[in-house]
Specification:
Elements lengths: L1 H12 L5 H9 L4 H12 L4 H4 L1 H7 L4 H23 L5 H15 L9 H9 L6 H9 L1 H6 L2 H8 L3 H23 L15 H4 L3 H10 L3 H18 L3 H15 L3 H4 L5 H13 L4 H12 L8 H9 L2 H21 L7 H14 L1 H7 L9 H26 L16 H9 L1 H16 L3 H7 L14 H11 L9 H16 L3 H14 L5 H10 L8 H17 L3 H5 L18
Helix pairs in contact: 6-8, 7-8, 12-14, 12-15, 14-16, 15-16, 16-18, 18-19, 18-21, 20-22, 20-23, 21-22, 21-24, 21-26, 24-26, 25-26, 26-28, 28-30, 29-30, 30-32
Length: 583
């Protein structure tokens, strides 16, 4: 076939006889047997010592092909070793000259399965494969597939579309992996989306593959960053920001200075990475991060676009928000106002830079977003007053009560709080983290007091996957409250169900929570929830699947008529989970 012809065409150029030559010899000769013998001698193994072995092998019935094949394989291995050695020895120009000559000689046999590995090996060791040969490789699917990544990099760097085709499925896979973690059926306050350390996350398959594809090639690194920026703009999906930071830090781990030294975010990201590892921004690192932000020079403001994307990574936001809540608690103890704490102001500055990433990259106006004074003078003191309310209530509970009876927990929410959560993005983010904080402390009173403020928040942040993932995890700490009608009504009817019908993701998170805690919920409430959460025609597969799982579990719980009349058996207590030593 044409493939065969193509495969052996290269032999002619090298002056190696092929089947066609033998045919020609036999057609034009008088003594065919003599002609065959001569052809074998001319084109067989030329080494005298090996030639003597042939008749001996013939006696043993070993086909000549098998003999030639084993000699050939042996030679090929030697040649591959030699190529790798040439690539390391002598003067740079000389060794590359040798390899280029070898490529020139062998390239015409690139389609022969037996020779192809040699051609590929030579190209792999050439820092610059001649353009013409790269084009030929690129045009041939099978050759391109067989290429080493070192050769592919040379092809990719001048073919953004081709590189995009290779990277695109990896980016899709990455986003999918993140979403699978957020929607995982395992709900726990110990293990959540933010549990894995940065070092561990960088071992992920996608980050490792991208790191390998980029090698030390700055051009390819820039292309990947461009893809990530474009996708972040197109989708607003913040996981692309995580990948931006992970990729840089993965190259940092491998000490690829060729790239790290030219990425202006490198030192900032490195410092922030250490904070994310500790889930806290300490004073020393805060100074360092501030130094980077203050050091952005005139004419280099564009770096703010990159820094904002690094700060928009949910792992960075999580660290900054947790640190903010910790600072506010400290300030209550020190009797200090937020505006008097430079550390707190820096955290807010970085939060607003991160939250402003999309707008900055979209508008291409590179300047830090203005911080609203009200956030510092009104909203944060409001949060501090909630902390004080809790202290006061706890102390009141412990005092011997006079005839005035127990002091009720303050139930009203200041209107300003609700308004801030609706209108100010940073306030909303910090407010949500405060609610996660009180839930983790099992502070039911404070939780029920602030919950109504979550129904309407800035750009529906309270219904975002990351918040709901964390909230459902923390709610397992209040699992005993689910037996109470009032608590369930506030949580489900007052919050979750207000968005279920318009937001598929909320529907999924409620079902996840119930799959985990259904045995704690009062039976009457559970029944009405089962009705309210029934999927509609528009519901996606994930919702239907979760709903079916829940229905199956509830089916198993229903007692059969016979059991009801018997004496109720003691319910086995759920095994208690040992609390881990504080990390």
């Amino acid at each position: 076939g044409p493939g065969q012809a193509d495969m052996y065409a290269g032999k002619k150029e090298l002056g190696v006889a092929n089947g066609e030559d033998l045919k020609e010899t036999l057609t034009n000769c008088t003594e065919p047997l003599k002609a065959i013998e001569q052809f074998q001698t001319e084109n067989g193994v030329l080494k005298k010592t090996l030639q003597y072995a042939l008749p001996f092998l013939d006696l043993h019935g070993t086909p000549r092909l098998e003999f030639h094949q084993s000699v050939f394989d042996e030679l090929r291995e030697k040649l591959l070793e030699r190529v790798s050695a040439i690539a390391l020895e002598g003067k740079v120009e000389e060794r590359y000259k040798k390899l280029e000559d070898l490529l020139e000689k062998s390239f015409s046999l690139k389609k022969m399965p037996s020779i192809q590995p040699v051609v590929m090996c030579v190209m792999k060791h050439l820092p610059k494969v001649p353009e013409k040969k790269l084009k030929l490789v690129m045009a041939d699917k099978d050759l391109y597939k067989a290429c080493a990544v070192e050769v592919k990099r040379q092809i990719w760097q001048d073919n953004q579309a081709l590189f995009g085709d290779e990277v695109s499925p990896l980016l899709k896979q990455y986003i999918l992996e993140k979403e699978n973690i957020l929607f995982s059926n395992d709900i726990s306050f110990l293990q959540n989306f933010f549990s894995p350390s940065p070092k561990m996350r960088r071992q992920g398959e996608v980050v490792q593959k991208l790191t390998q594809m980029i090698g030390k090639n700055v051009k390819l690194y820039d292309m990947v960053l461009q893809f990530l920026r474009t996708l972040f703009l197109r989708t607003r999906n913040v996981h692309y920001c995580t990948l931006r930071a992970e990729l840089l830090m993965s190259l940092h781990d491998l000490e690829i200075s060729e790239i790290c030294t030219v990425d202006p975010c490198h030192k900032f990201t490195w410092c922030l990475d250490a904070c994310i590892r500790e889930k806290f921004v300490d004073n020393k690192r805060a100074r360092e991060l501030q130094g980077f932000l203050d050091g952005v020079k005139k004419g280099q403001e564009q770096v703010l676009g990159d820094l904002s994307m690094i700060l928009c990574d949910p792992f960075a936001i999580n660290t900054l928000a947790l640190s903010t809540i910790r600072h506010l608690q400290d300030l209550v103890g020190q009797d200090t106002l937020p505006r008097e704490s430079p550390d707190l102001l820096l955290l807010l500055r970085m939060l607003s830079l991160g939250q402003g990433a999309w707008d900055m990259i979209d508008s291409q106006v590179f300047k830090e977003p203005k911080m609203e004074a009200e956030l510092i003078t009104r909203f944060l003191p409001l949060l501090m007053s909630f902390v004080v309310d809790d202290h006061t209530f706890t102390v009141d509970q412990k005092l011997p009560s006079e005839e005035k009876g127990p002091i009720p927990y303050p139930s009203a929410i200041p209107e300003a709080f609700t308004k801030f959560l609706q209108e100010n993005r940073i306030a909303c983010e910090i407010g949500l983290y405060y609610i996660l904080h009180i839930t983790k402390q099992r502070n039911k009173n404070a939780f029920l007091r602030l919950l109504p403020a979550l129904v309407e928040t800035f750009s529906d942040l309270a219904f975002s996957d990351i918040f709901l993932h964390l909230l459902t995890g923390n709610l397992t700490l209040l699992s005993d409250e689910f037996a109470l009608e009032e608590f369930c009504t506030s949580l489900f009817d007052g919050f979750f169900l207000t968005a279920c019908s318009r937001k598929e993701n909320v529907h999924r998170h409620v079902l996840r929570l119930l799959l985990h805690l259904h045995h704690k919920v009062a039976p009457a409430k559970l029944e009405s929830l089962q009705k309210a959460l029934e999927p509609t025609k528009q519901s996606g597969e994930a919702v239907k699947e979760l709903y079916n799982q829940l229905s199956e579990k509830l089916e198993l719980r229903k007692p059969s008529p016979a059991e009801v009349t018997e004496t109720p058996s003691m319910e086995l207590p759920l095994p208690t989970v040992p609390t881990p030593a504080s990390r």
